[in-house]
Amino acid sequence: MGWAFSAISFFYVVLLMGVFFLRGRLKNFETTIYSRLIIVTFFEAVFAILCYQTIRFMDYIPIINSLISKLLLVCYLTWITLFTIYTFMISCDKDEEKSKAYYKKINLFFFSFLEAFACSISISSILSSASLVI
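Below the sequence we write its predicted structure tokens.
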């Protein structure tokens, strides 16, 4: 029954996508980020439902379960990044050029952070597979 909330979320996100994408809207930077945020939320709901389903068969298909779980985590990180960017964009100056400059700085920061995080995880997994971690 744990997947029921994800299924309801999926239904809600599909409705939200229909309302947002089928109606006319302004073409500015905030709506672009918001549309990406909705798309990532859709994939989060799909991967959450798939993750609940693959957990039941984890002993038989561990690779698929691991892949879907990691994709769900990537979706979470992407959503957090986009939401932070969206929050900065709606809070900062409404000048389009300044917004793009903020966006580039924020992207540089987050991608540097994610790269450092990914490197630390890969190094720790290499060390743990070699039994070098204490």
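The CA atoms of residues 1 and 52 lie 9 Å apart.
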